[in-house]
Amino acid sequence: MSESKLNNKKQILVMQGDITQQKVDAIVNAANESLLPGSDVSGAIHKAAGLGLEEECIKIGWCEEGEAKITQGYNLFAKYVIHTVGPVWEGGNYGEDKILANCYRRCLEIAAENEIKSIAFPAISTGAYEFPLEKATKIAVTEVKKYLENENTIESVIFVCFSAEIYDCYQKTIAEIMK
Ligand code: AR6
């Protein structure tokens, strides 16, 4: 686990692990537009949360790319799940960067509206949606830093990295951007 403090109250943490096991107020799901369970992180979150999560997602029905929706966390440690739909990487010419930045910003806005103090993010779009990891990490760290500098509700943001490669990339990026 590595830690980068913005001030006495706010921090960004990076850890290698499984997001479903995080004891935070909210975890973020890298969903698809239908909000139905998928593979990878979405499959793991739905499996750990139980069927109540899928039922609530079906009621919500849809989420646009770059947008986010909040549900309860059911059997997870986290009280809430914030579902966001990242861009599918198409080579970089259809606004993928902007859409990915919107995902982080909207998740943080919705978290703050719900008085969430701690939130964990996976590396949105870097799996099935094939967004290049380094570029995605820069966007993630930049958006989170910008948000925390301007808002006070959220105190702790954790980037949960599923592999050593992702962890190293976040470490390097945070060192660059937070200096
Ligand atoms: N904890 C943390 N990170 C994880 C976990 C986990 N348990 N499992 C995988 N990852 P992906 P996307 C990482 O494919 O690219 C879904 O099926 C993984 O290593 O889950 O946004 C949806 O339904 C990768 O770095 O999300 C959509 O159809 C990151 O999570 C589509 O895939 C994101 O990988 C979304 O694709």
The shape is globular
Binned strand content: 15-25%
Mean pLDDT: 97
Main sheet: which strands, in order across? 1-2-7-6-3-5-4
Oligomer: single chain
CATH architectural category = 3-Layer(aba) Sandwich
CATH topology: Leucine Aminopeptidase, subunit E, domain 1
What does this protein structure show overall?
This protein is of the alpha/beta class and 179 residues long. It has a single domain (2-177), classed as Leucine Aminopeptidase, subunit E, domain 1, CATH 3.40.220. The protein contains five helices and seven strands. Strands 1-2-7-6-3-5-4 form a seven-stranded mixed sheet, with helices on both faces. A hairpin with a 5-residue loop joins β1 (2-5) and β2. α3 packs parallel to α4 and α4 packs across α5 (164-177). The relative contact order is 0.21. Ligand AR6 binds next to β3 and α1.
